[in-house]
Amino acid sequence: MALGALLRLARVSNLPTVWSNVLAASVLAGGLAPQTLACVLAAMSALYMGGMVLNDAFDRDIDARERPERPLPSGAVAPSTAWMIGGGLLAAGTATLAAFGMQSAVAGLVLAGAILLYDAWHKGNPLSPVIMGACRALVYIGTAATAGLALSPAVLVAALALLLYIVTLTEAAKRGAGRIGLLIAGVALLDAAVAALAGSAITAAICVVLFCLTLALQRIVSGT
């Protein structure tokens, strides 16, 4: 199995936008200890990549007809491998969040459930953009949950803004709009605005760097 095919399956080029989600949410939660922040970054990365891999696993029959160049229908990655890696990453991310208490455990389980719901039922589902948006919003909530602030007003407002952005992005992708990769990278700019409004210019600057990093990585692994 080629490493490149697996990285493409996991959409690793979009990971910097997950990191910016976590950083912005950390600011809203009053800042996380470095060790906690590192664990949450790893957990959310695992959940994102696991969800992306399982998305292709669920879609393998459709992709065989419509996108035969994808890693699964092309034979670059075996379906059994995709199920194993995707499921393992999802479980690992959920378990890592659960280590921080009941609130973060519940948030992790809800996020994993939302990911699976989207993966299994996004084709032909008019609510799929909302489910996708909820997945990203739950990254904010799950991060803040590790500090016991999952339902604080600031976190909820920012999570709602992120949900609406992702709904708009997903609808644009479904309609075949161009520059989807740029719109995905734009998630990090939204996080930068959130961090700046919360008073952390340093985090905002890091999020802008992550926006640029996303665009750079998308030149290697397509951002979809």
Structure in words:
The chain is an all-alpha fold and 224 residues long. The chain contains ten helices and no strands. The protein has helices spanning 3-9, 15-28, 34-58, 60-66, 79-98, 102-120, 128-145, 153-174, 180-197, 201-218. The radius of gyration is 17 Å and the shape is globular.
Features:
224 residues, single chain, 75% helix
Q: Gist?
A:
The chain has 224 residues and is mostly helical. It has helices at 3-9, 15-28, 34-58, 60-66, 79-98, 102-120, 128-145, 153-174, 180-197, 201-218.
So how many helices?
10
Radius of gyration, rounded? 17 Å
Biggest sheet, open or closed, and with what strands and sense?
none
Query: What letter string, H or E per element, gives the SSE order?
Result: HHHHHHHHHH
* Unreliable stretches covering 5 or more consecutive residues: none
Strands, helices and their partners?
Layout lengths: L2 H7 L5 H14 L5 H25 L1 H7 L12 H20 L3 H19 L7 H18 L7 H22 L5 H18 L3 H18 L6
